[in-house]
Amino acid sequence: MKALCETWQELARQPSPRLAVTLCAFNLDFLCIHPFRDGNGRVSRLLLLLGLYHLGFEVGRYISLERLVEENKERYYETLELASAGWHEGKEDPWSYVAFLLSTCKLAYRQFEQRLATTGETRGAKTESVERAIAAWRGEFTVADVQRAWPGVSLDMIRHVLKNLRAAGAVECLARGPGAPWRTIRRDGEIG
After folding, report:
1. Helix (H) or strand (E) holding 112
2. Domain ranges of the chain
3. First and final CA of the chain: distance in angstroms?
4. Cβ neighbours of residue 68 under 8 Å, at least 6 residues apart?
5. CA-CA distance, 53 to 55, in Å (whole number)?
6. Are 178 and 143 a contacting pair, CB within 8 Å?
């Protein structure tokens, strides 16, 4: 691990467009070394996020890379297995994993652009956007989930929208407290 970290620090001092690819390879090496008994995947994604911040790619502040990896978990494990085969013998081919991580970052930027497009809407448009998003939500959600999905909307605005939707019978709160789960109620009485 020490040699891996020293190599990364040395490379990171020499700015290059290739550093994003190098960061993905560093991430693969970390996973192959597997320094901890448990939690290596989560730590690797935190290291990826930190490395991206240091390289100036800050989309992870607004779009959860962890969520995107989770949504594409099968592909993540498939590319990890392909890329790590032969790693201990120095015969690995990291490109499938590197491509997966870079495409995940690209997807995050696309989602961020979509969110930015909604922040410049006319008065009342944010409320309508949040109402539509909540109405389309499947399963339970929390205020924090809505806030992550709409970072340009204030917490007070989200609470106000939820209060109005609850009064209209469109949503219900299932518990009390800041992390309380909510769910939508469809027009036909079906719970979303």
Report:
1. helix 95-119
2. 2-119, 125-184
3. 47
4. 104, 107, 108
5. 5
6. yes
Chain segment 119-163, per-residue pLDDT in tens:
655 556 778 878 887 887 778 888 888 888 777 778 888 888 999
CA distances (Å), 121 to each of 102, 124, 125, 135, 190, in order? Answer: 30, 8, 6, 19, 31
Question: Does pTM top 0.85 for this prediction?
Answer: no
3-state DSSP call for residue 191? strand
CATH architecture for residues 125-184:
Orthogonal Bundle (1.10)
The conformation of residue 61, written as its DSSP 8-state character, comes to G
| Token pair 């944010």: residue | 126
Under-50 pLDDT residues of the chain: 192
In the structure encoding, which two tokens stand for residue 123, read together?
């008065």
